[in-house]
Every structure is written in C-alpha cells, then in structure tokens.
Design brief:
single chain; about 600 residues; eight-stranded parallel beta sheet; about 45% helix; binds phosphoenolpyruvate; binds magnesium ion
Length: about 600
C-alpha cells in the first residue's frame, strides 16, 4: 500500500554526501534567466550601458560578499565563493562583456549571454571532467549578474521556513552556503558530478546529497515524500510503507552508529591485538584542515593541490602556493601532511581555450606527465613544497607514476628545485619522505623497481580501478563494474603491499576504498599502514580498527584472495564484519 496513492519511483544519481534523510520535497526554481532580448545601443548610450553592467556586477559581488560574511566560520567553503567573486572580476567574463557591448553596440544582457555561451563552449570541450564541471561556476556567477540586470527576484534558500529536502536543477556554492541546517535535511539536483562544489559543501554540512539525477525536477512535485540515500546515490519518490519502514530503521541505526563513532574519534586507532594505525584525511582546500582535525585525523594523507590552479587565468605563484601549504603544515604539525604534486590535464584545459582536445584524456597528458612537460609549473610547485616543508612534517608524493623514467626525472626536478633554493639562500627542507601513488597497473608490475627509489607507496584505488579494470571513473554506463573488491584489484593491492614490505617501505592508501569501514579489515590484513580518506569517514574507520584483530584479518585475506568475484568478497566481509557497521545491509559491493 502506498502512503500517498502515488507510485514509488526510484531515481539513481551520484552520491555526493552520505547518510539517509526522509522528508518532503521543496522545489527550488533555479532556472537561469533564459529569454534575453537583443537591442542596439546608440553610440552616446554606450557609456551608460557599460555602467549599468558594471553596477550589476557590483551588486552581484556585494550579494556574494554578504553571503561569505554571514556564513558560519566552519563553512570555510567560502573560498569557493571567493572564486565566484574573483570570476566576476575575471577578464574572461568582465572585460569581454564590456568589449562586446562597445564593439557590437548591444545591450548588456545580450553581451553577457553571448560571452557566457562562448566560454561555456570552450569549457565543454575540455577533456577533464572536473574542469568541464567548472562551467557551472561561470553560469552561476553570470546568472547572478543577469538577475541584477533584468531585475529578477533571487529566490533565497535562506528564507525556507519548513523542514524540507531541496530539489533543484542545480545549486551554486552560494545557494548551498545559505542552507539553514535547521530547515534543510538534504538536497538533490539534476545536474552536478561527483566533484561538483555542491557535493563538497554537502559533505561539510554533513547532510545527505545526491547529484546528477537528471530528471529529479521533472519527476518530483512539491511535498512529495522523498527518501534520500546519499550513501548509495539513490532517491526514492513516494516510497511505499515497507520501503519507508526499512529506511527509517537504517537511518536510525546509521545515526546511532555515527554518534558513537564521533564520540570516540580522538581515540587511537588500535586493533584489539594492539596494532596501531594512522588514520588520515584527504583534503582539497587548506580550509578543510580544521574539520579534518576535529574528525580525529592523525595527519593529511593526501592534499590534492590542483584545486588551487583551477578557475583561474594565471597559475598561482610560488609564494602564493608556499603560503597556502605552510598554513596547512603549521596547523597539522607535528602530524604529517602529504602534499601531492599537481594532478591535472593539459594547460589549455585550465586556461580556458581548448585548441587541442585529447581524444582519451584519462590516458593523456595528466598529472606527472603534464608536470614533466611543463618544467616551469612543476619547478614552481616543488620549490613551494620544499619551502613549506621547513615548517613541519611534510611528505611529498608524485601522482600517476607509470614508468621508472618518470620517477627518475621527477626526482631530478626536485633536486634542481632544492639546489636553486640553496643558491638563493631561502629556507627549505629537502630531507623529507618522497613517495609515489600506485594507481596505474604498470606501477604495480614494476613496484619492486620503484620501491628502491622512494620512501613510501600510497595506493590510489580510484584510478587503480579505472586503469586496472578499464572502467572510466565518470561513466555511468560502466559504473556497475567499478568494484574495489574485484579480485584483480585486491590482488594488485596485495602485490603492492608485499613488495613494499620486502623493500621495507611503508604502504598507505588514499583512494576512496580506504574510507569504507567494511574494507578496513581486508586492507589492514594485506599490510596497509596509514589509511587516508574524506574526513567524515575517519571516525567510522577508526572504530572498525578498534573492533578487530589484525591476526584474524590476516587469516581472512587468504580466503578473500581465493575468491572469484567482487560480490563473493563483499559477502565474506559482510558475514565476518558486517555487524560492526550499521549500513552494510544497504552497501553495495563497491
Ligand atoms: C586515487 O586515484 O585513488 C586518488 C586518491 O587520486 P584522485 O582521486 O585525486 O585521482
Ligand atoms: Mg588518482
């Protein structure tokens, strides 16, 4: 029997922030201002037309600034809004619109719209998914200006007065920052990918979120009852009685489990047979350090540095990078901070004019390959890292190493960077652990060769699965095969750990797999040392570590290695450890 008489509909999207929420739908009209008239401006009116545009930009900036100033300090996603404010000053948008008004003698709305369309087209051709998704920042920012130009009312999410689940086509960083946690229980959007800012903010707010649902705003009506399962990336519209009951139970037990884990987050991660592990955080922005620490992070196992290079025309300077890294290093000291060198695609992709589109970007000029081709960019970053290292406990890590010569060259760059700092008399520290990410199958195959050249390995399962199983990380069509517990992946991890042990170097993991408590016994059993994950997962993984015996886990590894499918491995882990976790019944094998 359906509660509302309406049929139960299951919508599948992408998990942006985990947890379960049940509530009424509230549709937010966030469609951009679409119908824009074009009209000519006479010569003598051009000055006041550009002035009108400038003041719309100014108003948009003040509105964003007010949101930044009024957002709670822990929501230091403000830097995303700062990016939006910067975009308003950006030549790309600002100067080109003024230029268009003047050259084509058209109204400001039309000029803005056509400039945005050009920028959008250039961004959409970019090979990197993350960069393609940044187009939404430009759209949100130009929308805000457009609303000021045409005088449209901006619907304020901050004014919602009921406990609801937001349903929107898309939400900007500014929208999400205004969310009142007493009112908004979760949000879901048609657009957005895993790396969208919306998702990043949802994780900070700790509310469930599902993005990329495509048809949510077309399917859902105001006040429809919704279940948002942020862990699985699923939304159930008008659930039947049985589904509702099942999810209510799951939600309650998940909340209880999280509360207990959070209370214990500062405790050591020590197994019952007294083996200690370090549980660390993955961060993208320096501001996340505070929340990482409050979740009990014993260090930063992965600092993804590429976020500081995106959404901007000119790459950051050495000093800018140094200051940002130093902040993180000083806050965390004496705990380690693992700074990963730049992991982006081609420079054209970043600078906004794609004159060369790679046919297979994931197999193209990415990460270390890019850095080795751009010595100027690489050297700047290496110098900044070495300088920041003088302020605390830094580990440096190269991403996507696929061949020996890459590591060899990268290390030479590092030596050169140190030498130049020495000559200039700038303080730095060269004697720091240098590691590599193991995320390409060729690196697993030559791990014995690589191990002799580095201080540690860190396994990046996000890419190891992509490259190992030939599954595009961002392709929904093959997402069912993206399985961390696939026997091929488990064997690669096992092999890497074995080689690391034989060469007496530590082996860590910083891929998503490390943040799944059900996988923890398997990873520790295989010999993984530090595990690094999104900060929210830390209390749960620590709790799992405290509940298990390492010798039992080692025994279990032997059985897992003999299994034929990811499903078999999942069932075995669930049987052995599932009762220690509240959510395993709903977890998928991945
Ligand atoms: C990985 O590939 O597992 C990883 C941690 O790096 P990223 O997700 O940034 O590619
Ligand atoms: Mg990776």
């Amino acid at each position: 029997m359906k509660k509302s008489g309406k049929a139960e509909i299951v919508l599948k999207g992408l998990s942006a922030s985990s947890g379960i929420s049940i509530g009424k739908a509230y549709l937010v009209d966030r469609d951009s201002v679409d119908i824009i008239a074009r009209y000519s401006i006479p010569e003598k009116g051009l000055k006041s037309e550009t002035k009108r545009f400038k003041s719309a930009v100014q108003n948009a900036k003040s509105a964003l600034r007010a949101i930044v100033d009024n957002s709670p300090p822990e929501l230091h996603k403000a830097s995303i809004l700062e990016t939006h404010i910067a975009l308003l000053n950006d030549k790309l948008l600002y100067n080109r619109t003024i230029e268009c008004i003047e050259k084509e003698r058209v109204n400001a709305e039309w000029a803005l719209k056509s400039v945005v369309n050009q920028i959008k087209a250039a961004f959409m051709e970019m090979p990197d998914t993350y960069l393609r998704e940044r187009v939404s920042d430009i759209v949100h920012v130009s929308d805000l200006v457009m609303r000021n130009l045409v005088g449209a009312q901006v619907q304020s999410i901050g004014q919602i007065d009921r406990r609801v689940i937001l349903v929107a086509r898309d939400l900007s960083a500014a929208d999400t920052t205004q969310i009142n946690l007493d009112r908004v229980k979760a949000f879901i959007t048609d657009l957005g990918g895993k790396t969208s800012h919306t998702g990043i903010i949802a994780q900070t707010l700790e509310i469930p979120a599902v993005v990329g649902l495509e048809v949510a705003t077309r399917t859902i009506q105001n006040d429809d009852l919704l279940i948002v399962d942020g862990t699985k990336g699923v939304v159930i519209v008008n659930p039947g009685e049985a589904t509702l009951l099942e999810y209510e139970e799951q939600r309650a037990s998940y909340e209880r489990y999280k509360a207990v884990a959070a209370r214990e987050s500062s405790l050591k991660a020590e197994t019952i047979d007294r083996h200690r592990f370090d549980v660390m955080a993955n961060i993208e922005l320096p501001e996340e350090v505070v929340s990482a620490t409050s979740y009990g992070a014993q260090g930063i196992g992965l600092y993804r540095t590429e976020f500081q290079y995106l959404s901007r025309q000119v790459f950051p300077s050495e000093n800018e990078l140094y200051e940002r890294y130093k902040d993180v290093v000083e806050v965390m000291a004496p705990r380690p901070v693992t700074i990963r060198t730049l992991d982006i695609n081609g420079d054209k992709a970043v600078r906004g004019t794609a004159d060369y589109v790679e046919p297979n970007p994931a197999l193209g000029l990415r990460a270390i390959r890019y850095c080795l081709k751009r010595p100027d960019v690489f050297r700047t970053q290496l110098r900044a890292i070495l300088r920041a290292a003088a302020h605390g406990n830094v580990r440096l890590m190269f991403p996507m190493i696929a061949a020996y010569f890459e590591l060899d060259l990268a290390k030479r760059f590092l030596d050169d960077a140190a030498e130049s700092l020495e000559k200039e008399g700038l303080p730095y520290k060269r004697d720091i652990p240098i590691g590599i990410m193991i995320e390409v199958p060729s690196a697993v195959m030559i791990a014995d060769v690589l191990a002799k050249e580095v201080g540690f390995f860190s396994i990046g399962t996000n890419d190891l699965i992509q490259y190992g199983l030939a599954i595009d990380r961002g392709n929904k069509q093959v997402a069912h095969m993206y399985q961390a517990l696939d026997p091929a992946i488990i064997r690669m991890i096992h092999q890497t750990a074995k080689v690391a042990r034989a060469n007496r170097i530590p082996v860590h993991m910083c891929g998503e797999m490390a943040g799944r408590p059900l996988h923890t016994p398997l990873l520790l059993g295989m010999g993984l040392e530090d595990l690094s994950m999104h900060p929210q997962a830390i209390p749960l993984v620590k709790r799992m570590i405290r509940s298990i015996s390492l010798s039992d886990a080692r025994e279990m590894v032997k059985t897992v290695l003999s299994l034929k499918t990811a499903r078999d491995a999942f069932l075995l882990l669930r049987e052995a450890y599932g009762e220690l976790i509240a959510t395993t019944r709903s977890e998928s094998a991945s």
